[in-house]
Design brief:
8 strands, alpha+beta
C-alpha cells in the first residue's frame, strides 16, 4: 500500500475534464473508473475517478472553484491511526472538516477523518479495512 490513497481537485467542467484525462492518462494505463452523480457528492457536483486495476485514486469534481477544492488523502493501516491523525492535526492548528467515522456513502468500511490545513487544503486520512 502506498502512503497516498487518493487525490482530488476541482475543475470547471467535470465532463470536459473527464474526456481530457481519459485520453491524456491512457499511455500511463490510468483509466476512467467511475462517475459519482451530484446527488451523492458533498458539493452537488459530478465526480469522476481514474485509476488502475479498477481502483480510483485520482478524482476530479466540478461545482466548486478550481483551487479551493484541493484534497489529498493518506492511507492508514487501521482506524486508530485515523483517530491519531485527527487529534494531532487539530492540535497543530488544523480546522475540523469531518471527525473520524465511517462514511457509508463510500462503502461500509470507509473510516476517515478530514482536517483543513492552514491554506484550506482538505487533508484526509482513511482506513478502508473492516474494524
Amino acid at each position: 500500500m502506498t502512503i497516498l490513497d487518493h487525490i482530488e481537485f476541482a475543475v470547471r467542467d467535470a465532463e470536459a475534464s473527464r474526456r481530457f484525462y481519459e485520453r491524456a492518462l491512457a499511455p500511463l494505463d490510468i483509466a476512467w473508473v467511475i462517475a459519482v452523480g451530484p446527488e451523492h457528492t458533498r458539493m452537488g457536483g459530478t465526480r469522476h475517478g481514474f485509476g488502475k486495476d479498477g481502483y480510483p485514486c485520482l478524482w476530479i469534481h466540478d461545482n466548486e472553484s478550481p483551487g479551493t477544492g484541493t484534497h489529498i488523502a493518506f492511507s492508514a493501516e487501521d482506524r486508530s491511526i485515523v483517530d491519531a491523525f485527527y487529534r494531532a492535526a487539530l492540535n497543530a492548528g488544523g480546522t475540523d472538516n469531518g471527525p473520524p467515522g465511517v462514511r457509508t456513502r463510500y462503502h461500509a468500511h470507509y473510516y476517515a477523518a478530514y482536517v483543513l490545513d492552514p491554506d484550506g487544503v482538505n487533508v484526509e486520512v482513511v482506513c478502508q479495512r473492516p474494524s
